[in-house]
Amino acid sequence: MRQLSRSVRVAAAVAVVGLAAAGCGESSSSAGSKPSSSGSSGSSGYSGKGIGLAYDIGGKGDQSFNDAAYAGMEKAMAEFKIPGRDVEPQDGESDADKVQRLTQLAQAGYNPVIGVGFVYAPAVKEVAAKFPKVTFGIIDDETVQGANVADMVFHEEQGSYLAGVAAAKATKKKHVGFIGGVNIPLIQKFEAGFVQGVQSVDKTIKIESQYLTETPAEGGFSSPDKGKAGASGQIDAGADVVYGAAGLSNQGIISEAAAKKVWAIGVDSDQYSQSALKAYKDYILGSATKNVGGAVYDLVKSVVDGKPLTGVVRGSLSNDGVGFSDTNPKYKAMTDVVAAVDKAKKDIIDGKVTVKTTK
Fold it and tell me: What's the rounded Cα separation, in Å, for the pair 283 and 196?
């Protein structure tokens, strides 16, 4: 889940035209400027049709993971004057649906083609082999290896450690909570870092921990109602800071924390700054961020420059790939919390602290 206090934003007029792609989910085409008749951009050496972006569970509008990817796409479209198409997932879709979606983007001439989320791993592996001249990117997976594939991954545990430090310093009840969307290794990294961060401050703090579902298909990343119920249970149990790593479900976690007047910690994007969450922002302490938008932008830039990134590209605290957002003035006013988080960040970058990826 990018350094959201430095989130990618552009003030550009973007035309979005909705259309349906058979068997491929909903799609929209966007352009930073009108492409030339040859399909090339205004950037020297680039001859692709534009950027192809296929969303993860929850789709665009999750105010988190997918929206961070779209922000990176927007910036690239505006800067390089190339169009793009972003495609929504369907409920209950199969790997074959994802293969069809990526194939259609590649056949249409989009380059790079990016799968947002580890669920695209089988599809990227299959489709990338069929289109060797197209660069493919996949976020949150490093199992797909290919000469034309970039695996864009992150040290999520490091940002979550900072979230844990912030929670431990902010709690007044010595009782905090973690809610993961789905019980999978990726989200277990978030929990591991958070727990270690909390315990680095005070080992006696009680930590509630739960996962909303066991599989993505059950809606753990896409059900605000499940997030709300999970947060309600933890708050009723005594937690006064709740950290959610649950995609779209975080909206429910945050709204419930605000309703109960306790702190929420967001994920992936700087959720304090998200317009859809503005009614609750006073209760968003900060967010454990990961630079998904920056990763998308960097991959597009590499393709436009004629030097496509491939292999594993990993974001960490040391390269601003992950972080903890500080945009809430109430957080900034808590100088002891800020100092503790800043020290923890320095200690990780300096190698004094190694953050675990499992509990």
Answer: 23
Structure tokens at 346: 């320095």
pLDDT value at residue 44? 52
Sheet of strand 15-20: strand arrangement? 15-20, 26-31, 83-87, 50-54, 110-115, 136-139, 149-154, 311-315
The pLDDT, as a whole number, for residue 23 is 35
User: Tokens for 54?
Assistant: 């296929």
- Our separate counts of H helices and E strands in the chain read 10, 14
SS3 of 125-162: the string is: HHHHHHCCCCCEEEECCCCCCCCCEEEEEECHHHHHHH
**Nearest 5°: CA angle at 219, between 292 and 64?**
25
Positions of the chain with pLDDT under 70: 1-44
Q: Are 284 and 277 in contact (CB under 8 A)?
A: yes
> Tokens standing for 118?
């580890």
Number of other CB atoms surrounding residue 348 within 10 Å: 24
2-34 b/e (C-beta count within 10 Å ≥ 16 → b): bbbbebbeeeeeeeeeeeebeebbbbbbbbbee
Helices (H), the chain: 65-80, 95-107, 121-130, 156-170, 185-201, 224-236, 250-259, 292-304, 329-333, 335-349
Question: Nearest CA to 115 among 45, 57, 200?
Answer: 57
Distance of alpha carbon 327 from alpha carbon 217, whole angstroms: 33
Check: CB of residue 309 under 8 Å from CB of residue 150.
yes
pLDDT confidence of residue 61: 80
3-state secondary structure of 99: helix
Q: At what angle do helices 156-170 and 335-349 cross, to 10 degrees?
A: 150
Under a CB-based contact definition with an 8 Å cutoff, are residues 222 and 247 in contact?
Answer: yes
Predicted TM-score of the model (pTM): 0.83
